[in-house]
Each structure stands twice: as C-alpha cells, then as structure tokens.
C-alpha cells in the first residue's frame, strides 16, 4: 500500500494506490489507483519520488520532496542565468571591469 501524486487536467491529488511493478532503469513505479483489487482501475507509471509507501516516515517523504523541489528551482535558475549570459550582445560594447564581473557572477549564483 502506498500513496502517490495523481495528475488530472492540471490538478494534483495525493491518493491511495498499490505498487504493481518497479522499472529499475527509469526508477519509476507502476501504480494502480485505489485500495481494492477490482479490475479496470487506472494504472500509470510514476517517478519514485512521487510515491510514498505507507511504511515510510511521512516526515522523511516531505523532506525528500522539499529538497528535490529546491534543487529543481536552483537548476532552472542556473540554466536561465547561463542562457541570459550567453545571449547578451557583445558587439560594440565596452568590456566590464573584473570587480563588476565578479559581482554579477556572485548575484547570479548565490541562492
């Protein structure tokens, strides 16, 4: 028995499910939604991080989700920073002083 994040038309819900299979290569779990054994229930593959086994400590699960979300935000910010820097026009512009470049890098990379 487990709970997983179900996604339907832009809405997420934390619902009961049963894990049917694990894909080692993708680290995904095939879950069947609901708590009973009736056939015809919807099944889907979920990333492991989106599934909490009922035997797991809920606090640890929340910490894992929070950490992953923060890491994702950092990665997105770093990609944007690098895109902006790579996209800056340099033709006909003066060069920046070393201390200015250092401040720009520090502000772009400090989170």
CATH class of the largest domain: Mainly Beta
Globally, the shape reads elongated
Radius of gyration (CA) equals: 22 Å
The total strand number stands at 5
Mean pLDDT: 89
Report how far apart the termini are.
38 Å
Poorly predicted regions: none
Q: Strand share of the residues?
A: 25-35%
Helix count from the secondary structure assignment: 2
Structural class: alpha+beta
CATH topology of the largest domain: SH3 type barrels
In short:
With 111 residues, the chain is α+β, with helices and mostly antiparallel strands. The protein has helices spanning 58-87, 98-109; strands at 2-8, 11-23, 28-33, 43-47, 51-53.
Description:
The chain is α+β, with helices and mostly antiparallel strands and 111 residues long. It has 2 domains: 1-56, SH3 type barrels; 57-111. It has 2 helices and 5 strands, in the order βββββαα. The protein has helices at residues 58-87, 98-109; strands at 2-8, 11-23, 28-33, 43-47, 51-53. A 5-stranded antiparallel sheet has the order 4-3-2-1-5, with no helix packed on it. A hairpin with a 4-residue loop joins strand 2 and strand 3. The longest helix has 30 residues, at 58-87. The two termini are 38 Å apart. The mean pLDDT is 89.
Topology (SSEs and partners):
Elements lengths: L1 E7 L2 E13 L4 E6 L9 E5 L3 E3 L4 H30 L10 H12 L2
Antiparallel strand pairs: 1-2, 1-5, 2-3, 3-4
Keywords:
111 residues; 2 domains; five-stranded antiparallel β-sheet; 2 helices; 38% helix; 31% strand
